[in-house]
TrEMBL record:
Transmembrane segments: none annotated. This is Adenylosuccinate lyase family protein. Residues 360-439 form the Adenylosuccinate lyase C-terminal domain. It comes from the Bacteria. It comes from Halomonas litopenaei. Keywords: Lyase. Belongs to the class-II fumarase/aspartase family.
Length: 445
């Protein structure tokens, strides 16, 4: 199956370049060499052996294809990698290689090492999204638009509030992911059954030193079948994906030809159809939603694998690798699209105004009924408001004019009162206050 045509376009291309097979091998090598350094540091390896191992292996051309073939017999990439590394070492250093570690130590630590830089990239992209949303909120704090429920026109709101909701969803997810990044992804080192067999009291000391060498956090205990670190990372990624999907769905719906309230940023060839030259498809939204859906699917795999047996998972651990690593690349790709989308989003206030008037004023029937209720009672007020709205729609006339001509209109209701009651811009509830409150929260670091 062609990943380049079917999978990779939904991912971050820069992240893909940083997470190739060779990069995972480099992270496995970083683990092994760091382990040798800390073991040499406590006198468990001869002086200078870690440096000699690094000299022999740091520029060694590991055959990733051969390592991949070796997974079929060993069940994970660490086993053929460790064999290849040992074979490339001088005889006097072979015994120093991979001491006290197990394959899960290598794979889990390498994945955490490989993905750590991606968390900083994700945070940077989420900051771009936040800044773009803040600009939309500022520019459209008072831009009235239709609020829709169950896909139908409901009551007025402002576009600033809609942007604020996008921003809050993304920022909540950013802070959740940021907590994980601040704590640091954990090193894995416990040996065969997670108790540092053969190392005694030195085991926990080595684990701490190894974490520092690799720039990872040190867990309380080895976490071979405690998959909470993976669960926490994956669900945080899924939260970002969920916020992105909500944004993309809203934008896609608002770009529809019949709605036309926003447009994706224009770019040569972007959004073109293979057969219909007039179309401007919301392609960025499609890419975001496609990536997000895949992340949701991957999350179900991770959640399903969280309970693992005894001291090593039998298939559950193995099932995590691709979903976790692909989710990071998919979220980063979706965030790149979202940042570009939000920074260049074309907002059309004139279309928002036209859609507010589309029903001939019926969207304002509720405030009209509230104005009339003290004079006519609730049922008669609602009936008059609805009848006038339908007449305004059919005749294409302003709602307040039709109301003013209604025979049952109380004589003490002025045309100015009717204009105010039928002006969507005057019936936006707490929209402005919500934008202000959201801005204050979003600007907190």
């Amino acid at each position: 199956m062609s990943d380049a045509l079917l999978s990779h376009p939904f991912m971050s291309q820069s992240a893909l370049e940083a997470c190739r097979d060779d990069d995972l091998v480099a992270s496995m090598l970083a683990f092994e060499l760091a382990l040798a350094r800390v073991q040499e540091g406590v006198g468990a390896l001869p002086a200078g052996s870690a440096g000699r191992m690094a000299a022999a292996l740091e520029h060694h051309n590991f055959d990733t294809a051969a390592i991949a073939r070796g997974i079929a017999s060993g069940g994970n990439a660490a086993i053929p990698f460790v064999k290849a590394g040992r074979a490339a070492l001088p005889d006097e250093l072979k015994a120093c290689w991979h001491q006290g570690a197990t394959s899960q130590d290598v794979v889990d630590s390498a994945l955490m090492h490989l993905l750590t830089p991606r968390l900083a990239s994700l945070d940077g992209l989420l900051e771009r999204c936040r800044n773009a949303v803040l600009a939309l909120m500022r520019d459209h704090e008072q831009t009235p638009m239709v609020g829709r429920t169950l896909m139908q026109q409901a009551l007025p709101m402002t576009f600033g509030v809609k942007a604020a909701q996008w921003g809050i969803g993304l920022e909540r997810a950013r802070r959740r992911l940021g907590d994980i990044a601040a704590e640091g992804l954990p090193v894995q080192f416990g040996g065969a059954v997670g108790v540092h067999s053969g190392w005694g009291e030195q085991g926990l000391e080595l684990m701490q030193a190894l974490a520092e060498e690799l720039g990872l956090s040190c867990p309380v205990l080895p976490w071979h079948t405690d998959r909470q670190p993976i669960h926490a990372l994956q669900t945080a990624l899924d939260a970002v994906a969920g916020a992105l999907e909500s944004l993309a769905l809203d934008v896609a719906l608002l770009t529809q030809t019949e709605v036309g309230e926003v447009s994706e940023p224009s770019a040569p060839g972007m959004g073109e159809s293979s057969s219909m030259p007039h179309k401007r498809n919301p392609v960025r939204c499609a890419l975001i939603r496609g990536a997000s859906r895949r992340v949701h699917g991957h999350t179900t795999v991770i959640i399903g694998a969280v309970a693992q047996p005894l001291e090593r998972g039998l298939g559950e651990w193995h099932a995590e690798w691709a979903p976790l690593s692909e989710s990071v690349l998919l979220v980063e790709g979706a965030l790149e699209q979202a940042a570009t989308l939000l920074e260049g989003l074309e907002v059309h206030p004139e279309r928002m105004a036209a859609n507010l008037a589309l029903t001939g004023g019926a969207i304002m029937a509720e405030p009209v009924a509230r104005l009339l209720t003290p004079h006519l009672g609730s049922d008669r007020a609602k009936a008059l408001a609805a009848e006038a709205a339908e007449t305004a729609r059919r005749q294409g006339r302003p709602y307040h004019e039709v109301l003013h001509e209604a025979p049952r209109l109380p004589p003490d209701i002025s045309v100015e009162q009717l204009k105010a009651a039928t002006d969507p811009a005057l019936y936006i509830g707490s929209s402005r206050q919500q934008v202000s409150k959201a801005r204050e929260w979003l600007e907190q670091r």
